[in-house]
Amino acid sequence: MISPPPQLHIGPLALDFPVVQAALSGYSDTAMRVIARRLGAPYTLCEVLLDKFVLQVKARRKNHHFLHVADEEHPVGGQLMGADPAQFGPAALRLVERGFDVIDINFGCPVKKVLGRCRGGFHLGQPDVALEIVARVREAVPPRIPVTVKMRRGLDDSAESFEKFYEIFAGAYALGAAAITVHGRTVKQRYDGPSSWEFLRDLKQQAGDRIVLGSGDLFDARACLEMLEFTGVDGVTVARGAIGNPWIFQQARALAVGEPLPEPPSLFAQRDVIAEHYALAEALYGPQRCVAPMRKFGIKYSQLHPLHAQVRAAFCQVKQPGGWRQVLAQWYSTDDSGVHPAVEQPNPQQTSGPLVA
Question: Of 343, 249, 331, whose CA–CA distance to 298 is shortest?
Fold first, then answer.
């Protein structure tokens, strides 16, 4: 008898599956999150928001999408990033007031301009400031709201960096963090080279019953289950692997209960989900303003089409409201088999044994 997949607990929240959608800057708006939830993600995170922006943003139509939470997507996390610890608490409270169920603190972003403004991964070099941020957020939001942290495994591979990582890691839990997500690359690596799953495995062994989620090199459903098996982490967060492939969550659920990897979605199945996604985006942004954000999603969705180069080019040419319907009419009018997207960066640490213990 196949055992059901393990639950993932984040504070009082009990998620029925340990594969969730990460915060994705420029992507994980309400439309993307809702599609992911409809296709099996038990929990999603909004794109990272600057604390000062959250505090200053006006309630105008053009800003509506940043803090929007749909009724059907609970539980959903709001991710904060910033430099000044004093702004994190009030910003976190405002996200709670707007309907976010979890507050996630970003200590992992490796983008150069973010680091230059003392945000994101920069905080991994200053444990005192990082832990002050965690303390202020935990104090500001109600006890029922879990506070979580996103980290990388350090600024670099130096001994000093590892010491600071562990100081923040242990200190955050001591201050009340419900879970910590760790990306297996350093800040210096950015997105180059493999994510160290061995580091995640060692970290989880040290963490004991504290909730640890893993991140890095999760470009298909099998990799999600392999990370859970190899590292022993409590859950995994899918980032780039979920853009244009929300079926990754359905596929991971199937593998977790011993079923074979499902076939990639057919062209009609892709067409229907793309249409759903566009409809959600039009409602969120308006027909004109949704064109640009949805163009990049169309490009990502094209990777599942057997003629992906031509379909990608067609989505790139969409400039007018409703233009995506012409792409669907031309390239998705006849049902056919889809393809699994190419894996960007296979991780040599992935195992070939059983997918789950």
Answer: 331
Q: Helix or strand or coil: residue 345?
A: coil
Residue type for position 55: L
* Active centre residues (catalytic): 109
What contacts 150, CB < 8 A, 6 or more positions away? 23, 79, 104, 105, 106, 107, 108, 180, 181, 183, 215
Euclidean distance between CA atoms 151 and 223, whole angstroms: 20
Region 90-100 average pLDDT = 97
Residue with tokens 């692997």: 241
272: buried, middle or exposed (CB in 10 Å: 19+, 13-18, 0-12)?
middle
Sequence letter at residue 332:
Y
CA neighbor of 173 nearest in space, from 148, 143, 202? 148
- Cis omega (within 30 of 0) for bond into 75: yes
Q: What is the pLDDT of residues 201-230, one digit of tens each?
A: 999 999 999 999 999 999 999 999 999 999
Write phi, then psi, for 37 (nearest 5 degrees): -65, -40
Give the burial class of 55: count Cβ atoms within 10 A of its Cβ; 0-12 exposed, 13-18 middle, 19 or more buried.
Answer: middle
Q: Which helix (H) or strand (E) holds 148?
A: strand 147-152
Give the separation between CA 244 and CA 279, rounded to whole angstroms.
Answer: 15
CA 81 to chain centre: 15
List, as one string, the DSSP characters of 201-244: HHHHHHHTTS-EEEES---SHHHHHHHHHHH--SEEEE-GGGTT
Q: What is the pLDDT of residues 304-332, one digit of tens each?
A: 999 999 999 999 999 999 888 999 999 99
Q: Residue 137's closest CA among 194, 178, 193, 184? A: 178
pLDDT in tens, 241-284: 999 999 999 999 999 999 999 999 999 999 999 999 999 999 99
pLDDT in tens, 55-67: 998 766 666 788 9
Q: Which two tokens stand for residue 328?
A: 């669907």
